[in-house]
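Co-fold these.
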Amino acid sequence: MSMIRVATWNVNSLKVRLPHLLQWLKLCDENQQSIDIIGLQELKITDDKFPTKELEQAGFYSLPLGQKTYNGVALLVRKSSLAQLHQDPETAFLQVQKNIPNFIDEQQRLIVSTIHLKETPPIRIICGYFPNGQSPESDKFAYKIRWLTALKKYLATQLQQYPRLLLMGDFNIAPEDQDVHDPKAWVGQNLVSPEERAFFSQFQELGLVDSFRLFDQEPKSFSWWDYRMMGFRRNAGMRIDHVMVSQELKERCTSCKVDKVPRKWEQPSDHAPVILSFTK
DNA sequence: ATGGCCGCGCGTCGCGGA
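Predicted complex below.
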């Protein structure tokens, strides 16, 4: 009954948050809740500045896709969790895809790879930093819709190919009103619009499951809190970071949790990590 | 009370974030 743990975390600048990331990974280890695979978003650094060495010293291989100032995503995998034949930076990440195929994009928002962990079939991991969308009238929203449309198409083909598929990241979509601290105040805004939520439903129709809702959760569970207005202290947040899994993985899930601990630290990211556990 | 906080860049304010 050996466990795999996958986490997603929007770190809001890896340069600033590397100490938190390392601290958090260590804390998980100490609690016997070691993370095997991590998807990061909002790196805000180019690949030449990615802390490959520090993360390798912490026991992880990295697959970054960064850019200056904005966006940027990465996958990390624990070296010791990899199948023997893949315990090498060259073979840790297989069948890598950077950004959505056939979708021309300046913004670095999607990283995909197949990962072979010990004693379990390979897992297809998709890590995304979905566009924010600003407001439904904006050009940025139109871009978000185009991005989501392209992603949906890609997911459909990936699900045909990979029975063990996991899609995680900062979706910038609160799927339901229970994922919003004050649904009335958010009516008509991005993150909650019917158009964005329809994409989330369509991902579910493709066979992906919101793993968080497979389990009992505290009411008002969120993954992001605004820095302003004492958002975290008032628990005025949103649940916009998600881990979706294919049917074959769904059967194996044992828990999905938001870890609010690092949100309480000094100079935190505005997002908390979400951790999914499933059996091998 | 419609703001308030962060991180970034050729920067000392404006933009983007959600």
